[in-house]
Amino acid sequence: MRMTDRPSALARWSRRVGLGCALALSGAATPALADRLVPPPGYYAPVARGGKTPACPPPPPPFAGTLDFPSKYEGSGKSRDTLNEASDARYKTLTLPITTMEKGATRLVDQYMDSGSPQALACVLAWYGGWADARALLGPAANHTGKSMRKWALASLSSAWLRLQFSSSQPLAAHAQEAAKIQAWLGAIADQVVHEWNEDDPRERINNHYYWAAWSVMATSVVVDRRDLFDWAAKMYGIFAAQVDADGYLPNEIKRQTRAAGYQVYALTPVAMMAAFGKANHVDLASQGSNALQRAAERAIGAYDDPRAYEAKTGKQQVLEGADEQSSKLAWLEPYCWTLACSGAESAKLGSLRPMKNTRLGGDVTAVFAPR
Question: Which domains does the chain have, with CATH numbers?
């Protein structure tokens, strides 16, 4: 069942999230409250104290207009694997306010958690609050890339925000009204994402983009404590689980031909986070599809080091962007190894790449899943 448009969505969620925020900030929202959606336990980590106060850069201008961006693969064939450099340059220019917000906000949350500086927290609230006031990211999406930017930004912003919202130090206790406004804004974006990524679309179309939409919505479901959002994301995870074949490949990522290996890794990133959030809420997503997540992860773990299996599968030499950024590209190993017991190649790779950070997983993933 799809969720349809709701009247006065932002106002409605403001009222509900205001109550949820008050419960969280009062200390009532703890892992023991099974009836409230919660993140994995690492999100309850206390804020560090006595760290150096980082500088507060000016936030990017809120993007409140139409989400209309070119694809970096513009003009490519069905495989969508040939980079259009001119289109990619336009894409980066037009999306700069959004990508700056994603990277900057997650970095600022990391810095606050590491420093405990009141000025750093004020900076985080100024960034989020300015975009919430402008109703940023709520404009219409003119194309697929516009829809993609909305859900990627939501994934970044909600997953970073959770570290503040659930920290045992309760850093938002003195900012309940501002927090409620921000959380309502994130919930309103999630409603847009659900509207734009239809779980009833033909299965040959559902690929990594839909998984990323589901992760952004699941993270936000915990922010606003909305079981309908959580269940929608879990249903999308079920589609992923059904798509993984017996050898661990994702057929709709194999279609990317020269970029199949990279997209297998990319697709694993949001679903590993969803499996971890499912576990935190006593929903066993990881075992679905006869342990589809494990099969897909075992297939993905060596993609950068030895892509020959993908070359045999596709008949194409692999283009591996980001092979030198594996601490980000393989950051899904942190939630994966928290959800399932890792050993062998996965455990060795994880240990060699820490600390692992990924903007669209909320920043410092190692700090959340393997706190020192």
Answer: 10-369 (1.50.10.100)
Question: pTM score > 0.85 for this model?
Answer: yes
SS3 annotation, the chain: CCCCCCCCHHHHHHHHHHHHHHHHHCCCCCCCCCCCCCCCHHHHCCCCCCCCCCCCCCCCCCCCCCECCCCCCCCCCCCCCCCCHHHHHHHHHHCHHHHHHHHHHHHHHHHHHHHCCHHHHHHHHHHHHHHHHCCCCCCCECCHHHHHHHHHHHHHHHHHHHHHHHCCCCCCHHHHHHHHHHHHHHHHHHHHHHHHCCCCCCCCCCCHHHHHHHHHHHHHHHHHCCHHHHHHHHHHHHHHHHHCCCCCCCHHHHCCHHHHHHHHHHHHHHHHHHHHHHHHCCCCCCCHHHHHHHHHHHHHCCCCCCCHHHHHHHCCCCCCCCCCCHHHHCCCHHHHHHHCCCCHHHHHHHHHHCCCEEHHHCEEHHHHHCCC
What pLDDT digit, counting tens, does each position of 27-38 carry?
A: 333 444 458 999
- Over residues 205-237, the pLDDT tens digits come to 999 999 999 999 999 999 999 999 999 999 999
